[in-house]
Design brief:
Blueprint: E1 2-3, E2 9-10, E3 18-22, H1 27-38, E4 44-47, H2 52-62, E5 69-72, E6 75-78, H3 82-91
Parallel strand pairs: 3-4
Antiparallel strand pairs: 1-2, 3-5, 5-6
Length: 96
């Protein structure tokens, strides 16, 4: 249990913002999106193929240019398959 700025107890921790940087035609991106959705994760999908600014943001966050790139708070997983995503989520205790 954590405390809010006013000192009140918080029963549930703040939800971590999840982002999936992808491209429409990327099969690994489609797999990652389906994996996350089927397990109840709420995330923002960002198509870097249509948004140059988002592409630059992804490059800065991950130090690379491959998709999919998954960002959870300050943690980044780039150029992965669903097995690597599952391991990343588990190791970092990221839940839906």
């Amino acid at each position: 249990m954590s405390l809010t700025p006013l000192g009140c107890a918080r029963l549930f921790p703040l939800r971590m913002e999840l982002k999936l940087y992808s491209r429409e035609w990327c099969s690994w991106c489609i797999d990652a999106k389906e994996y996350l959705e089927s397990r109840g994760y709420k995330f923002t999908e960002i198509n870097v193929g249509n948004d140059r600014q988002a592409y630059e943001e992804m490059k800065e966050l991950s130090d690379q240019t491959y998709v999919p790139t998954f960002v959870a708070g300050d943690k980044v997983l780039a150029n992965f398959d669903t097995d690597q995503l599952e391991k990343f989520l588990s190791e970092n205790q990221i839940t839906p």
